[in-house]
Amino acid sequence: MKPPDKGEEGDTIVQKLSKDSLTIGGHTFTFDSEQMFQLVGVPLVENCLSGFNSSVFAYGQTGSGKTFTMWGPANGMLEEHLRGEQRGLTPRVFERLFARIKEEKVKHAERQLNYQCRCSLLEIYNEQITDLLDPSQKNLTIREDVKSGVYVENLTEEYVKNLTDVSQLLIKGLGNRRTGATSVNAESSRSHCVFTCVAESRCKNVADGLSSFKTSRINLVDLAGSERQKSTGASGERLKEAGNINRSLSQLGYKLE
Ligand SMILES: Nc1ncnc2c1ncn2[C@@H]1O[C@H](COP(=O)(O)OP(=O)(O)O)[C@@H](O)[C@H]1O
Ligand SMILES: [Mg+2]
């Protein structure tokens, strides 16, 4: 997804919000979770099974539906929100991923295809990384090495085998975000939230019986609100926070250009 052109996000307010449409600054957007999933989620799952990494970023101003799109209603904090008709992209992706893994295992049974998936959930607030699966870990460090690439040191990773495991992990982790509420000024709208799944597959080559491995990564990101952070009148924490959000979103914009 490409961020809107600079200056477009301004201080527009969300005027109307109905079940499937949203009016922002006079423009009405209609969307449907299943359509979004077909467009973005299905290719993402196929990429993952082919050994490629994929990332989805929800970018936009506060109130535009980023959190709803990524997890589901009420910040995806209840099982029913992650299972119901309105469930977000993340539960749909994992539902599909586990179903496809099952199919692939049957298809490649003679090669003993096997998958292991592990997930982590983190929040970036004021340039500090908190482990949402173990919030006592508050100021984690980003490291890079030749073997693992860029990674967050000591970040909790939990193995998941099915959608229930993923739902339980999300309910626990999203509940640890700074503020669960969806009010425009809630702190959750000023932090980035990153859900990562690493899928490792192993299978035997028929010809020589040797094992081969494939690793791929899915990143699902709920970004902080992109509204122009008002610096007039802002001081202390609020000002620092605004600067950090603007800096990280523009860095991301440069990377995606
Ligand atoms: N497609 C939608 N259908 C119904 N309600 C929605 C939809 N998208 C967002 N909402 C509601 O609008 C409000 C703002 O959405 P939210 O996802 O919290 O925005 P953001 O994360 O971008 O700040 C929330 O109360 C959310 O439940
Ligand atoms: Mg949000």
UniProtKB/TrEMBL annotation:
One BP annotation, GO: microtubule-based movement
Pfam families registered for this protein in UniProt: Kinesin (PF00225)
UniProt cross-references to Gene3D superfamilies, sorted A to Z: Kinesin motor domain
Protein name per Swiss-Prot or TrEMBL: Kinesin-like protein
Organismal lineage: Eukaryota, Viridiplantae, Streptophyta, Embryophyta, Tracheophyta
GO CC terms: microtubule
Keywords for this protein: ATP-binding, Coiled coil, Microtubule, Motor protein, Nucleotide-binding
Originating organism: Arabis nemorensis
Family: Belongs to the TRAFAC class myosin-kinesin ATPase superfamily. Kinesin family. KIN-12 subfamily.
Amino-acid positions noted as binding ATP in the UniProt annotation, renumbered to this chain: 60-67
Molecular-function GO term, any one: microtubule motor activity
The Kinesin motor domain, residue ranges: 1-257
Keyword check for Glycoprotein: no
KW Nucleotidyltransferase (keyword) present: no
InterPro entries, per database record: KIF15/KIN-12, Kinesin_motor_CS, Kinesin_motor_dom, Kinesin_motor_dom_sf, P-loop_NTPase
